Amino acid sequence: MVTPPRTLAALLPWFALTAAGAVPAAPDPHAHARGLIATHCVTCHNRDLVGGPAPNLLDPIARHGGNDEALRRAIREGFPATGMPAFGDILGEADTAAVLRFIRHAQREYAAGRITHPEPPAQAPVPTRLHGARLETVVSGLGTPWGLELLPDGGMLISEREGRLLLVPAAGGPPVPVTGTPATQVRQDGGYLDVTLHPRFATNGWVYLAYTEVGPRAGTSGTVVVRGRIAGGRWTDQELLFRGPDATYVEDTSHYGCRFLWDPAGHLFFTLGDRGVPAAAQNLGSPLGKILRLRDDGGIPADNPFAARPGAWPSVWSYGHRHVQGLEYHPATGQLWATEHGPRGGDELNRIDPAANYGWPVTSAGLDRNLRFTAGEPGMRPPLRHWTPSVAPGAIAFGPGGAFPRWRNHLFIGCLGGEQLRRLELDGEVVRDEEIVFQGHGRVRDVRFSPDGTLLLVLNQPGRIARLVPDPSVPLANPATVSFR
Question: CA 183 to CA 320: how far, in whole Å?
Fold first, then answer.
């Protein structure tokens, strides 16, 4: 039995064989749509629509609404701020309907595992302006890895959005799932989020995990933070550290957060997005749209800026955030930095101070169908850098030197948009230079420097952990550089 090829790239040989009579012709109900997609879509969305510079159209993450009308509107009107053109003047109603039917068909094939992501090479040269480097796969075959922690014995702990916590042995070998971990709701942005170890993990064994849970009302969900221990490969001793009030459990399935960071005093920072309720980011009585700070046991530090204010959520550290996904201290200045997603464009880089207001949803450099932004308001911090079209910034890390000495104190940003790793050279709070270190190796969800100064990366689509290591045989180069003047 001859099986028709599953990739657009393979269609031409199939059609040629059919035309020559070597294979019995069978009607293809999606032939017209395949031709339209091959002409207009594959450059940005990859040959099978699984994502390239533009997002994956087949996964369950509905970035602009997942129903048929939202998809028709996206095709007709595009998203100019993110670089997607409008096709309303090119594709008629019948063409649009054909493309929509094919996308739904392809989504079913993707869910069944019959459309997959191209397998990346095990090693790839990465020429940059300051170092020759090589990207090496460390762990492959993952689902959608989200967070990564290095264990004291040299192993790794990985959270997967699908609701798995994985132990990677220091000696190598396949990841081993931790059993008994909490149930989660896996939908759009939801599932297991970040994972981190207590600063004194070697003596107390505490592991901190953020995930989404079903809410008190039908169809709602929210973010919770727990801690537990792993004994004999099983999750034990779980304690709840954060659960929002019932009003924060909404039907929207976006912007859950949740990035972790420990401060020097042993307090836990974590981020919550606005959950599709923009006004909540300006409401100090709500934890949504905030960076929050807890004691390691979930208590409220007395020096939190709003801890004593009546009506304020006591763990709030800063507010006016849309969806913070990167959080890190500058190793030289001790200042706290963050990246967050804008609406359509307007992604931000900010330096974070306690009690500061970062403006969402009053001000933004992006676009939103339902909001009108001002240029800025008194008391609201403008971003130090913003990106339009969107780069969808994820985790951030500052270079420690070591294996890459010329990158010392440079800021690295993992980007979901365009599958990029970006390097920013800072002069105080001014971005002096910006370089795309690489792109096209997968959506970069998390970035973390190892003790030796090599850079570990959590990559999605396909899910894997990779390491960027120095390679003097790779010549220096001048990749695409972003101009912001």
Answer: 30
How many of the other CB atoms lie within 10 Å of CB of 215?
17
**Residue 459 domain boundaries:** 124-470
Using CA atoms, how far residue 209 sits from 189, 196, 197, in Å, is: 16, 7, 9
Other CB atoms within a 10 A radius of the CB of residue 234 amount to 12
206 part of a folded domain = yes
Q: DSSP characters for 337-378? A: EEEE--SBS-EEEEEE-TT-B--TTTB-SSB-TT---BS--T
CA distance 8 to 311: 57
User: What letter does residue 267 receive in the DSSP assignment?
Assistant: P
Cis peptide before 27 (omega within 30 of 0): no
Minimal CA–CA distance to 325: which of 240, 258, 238? 258
Cβ(359)–Cβ(402) below 8 Å: no
Bridge partner residues of 468 (DSSP): 135, 455
Best mean pLDDT range from 98-102, 170-174, 273-277, 474-478: 273-277
The torsion angles phi and psi of 209, rounded to 5 degrees, stand at -135, 135
449/447 Cα distance (integer angstroms): 7
CA separation, residue 298 to residues 250, 269, 308, 385 (Å) = 23, 11, 17, 33
Statement to judge: residues 198 and 331 lie in one domain: yes
Q: Would residue 117 count as lying in a domain?
A: no
Q: Quick one: pLDDT at residue 477?
A: 83
219 and 77 fall within a common domain: no
Q: What CA–CA distance (Å, rounded) separates 432 from 409? A: 13
Give yes or no: residues 49 and 178 share one domain. no
SS3 55: coil
Both 86 and 160 in a single domain? no
Backbone phi and psi for residue 278, each to the nearest 5 degrees, phi listed first: -55, -40
Confidence of residue 43 (pLDDT cuts 50, 70, 90): low
Q: What is the largest CA-CA distance in the chain?
A: 80
pLDDT: which is higher, 483 or 119: 119
Domain match, 35 and 97 both: yes
Phi, psi of 341 (to 5 degrees): -80, 130
Q: Please, is 76 exposed, middle or buried when counting C-beta atoms within 10 Å of its C-beta (0-12, 13-18, 19+)?
A: middle
Q: What are the φ/ψ torsions at residue 357 (nearest 5 degrees)?
A: -110, 125
CB 135 within 8 A of CB 124: yes
- Asked if 291 contacts 254 with a C-beta cutoff of 8 angstroms, the reply is no
Which amino acids are annotated catalytic?
255
Average pLDDT, the chain: 89
Residue type at 225?
A: V
Nearest to 412, CA basis, from 285, 326, 296: 326
Q: Is 352 left (phi over 0), alpha (psi -120 to 50) or beta?
A: beta
